[in-house]
Amino acid sequence: MKALIDRAVVQGLLLPRTHAELYENLRHFYIYADEKGVGGCCALRVDNQDLAEVWALVVREDLRGNLVGAALLEACVADARERGVRRVYALSRTPAFFLRHSFQEIDRYELPQKVARDCIQCHLFLHCESVAIIRDLTSAGDTPA
Fold first, then answer.
1. In angstroms, rounded to a whole number, what is the distance separating the alpha carbons of residues 32 and 64?
2. 54: burial class by Cβ within 10 Å (0-12, 13-18, 19+)?
């Protein structure tokens, strides 16, 4: 999983994740694996009852475009629904993927707990290329698949 994330970092798709961060969130990860090993992963990090983050979503290069990412994302959304979370968000360098899955772009400062917890410490904070996106799970148009 770490190697997959590290490759995505080199490609400019994801911010670096330390071993400590991954171990801390390991129980919250969804993993796709095949005969080649880990093909994709992401985690749901719950901020509070109202809000959770889809975190570290990455898919191996040979599987991109094959619905692996969509399945991982929807696993996180289903988990959030089961927990009663009303909104899920992500900060992403590939917002088009999320926009295709009922997310909407917002200003990252609408996520003050994320900014305070992670963004302020990031070396790219003043020059952030990530886009904040959010999905309201309580809206009439957002029903389980």
1. 12
2. buried
Give the rounded distance of the alpha carbon of 57 from its chain centre: 5
Q: Is the pLDDT of residue 127 over 70?
A: no
Q: Cα 23 to the chain's mean position, in Å?
A: 16
Domain 2-136 has CATH 3.40.630.30: yes
> What SS3 class is residue 121?
helix
Phi-psi region for residue 10, left (φ > 0), alpha (ψ -120 to 50) or beta?
A: alpha
Model-level pTM?
Answer: 0.86
pLDDT in tens, 75-91: 999 999 999 999 999 98
Residue 84, SS3?
coil
Amino acid code (one letter) for 32: Y
Domain ranges of the chain: 2-136
Task: Give the C-alpha distances (Å, rounded to integers) separating 55 from 14, 44, 78, 104, 109.
Answer: 10, 6, 15, 16, 17
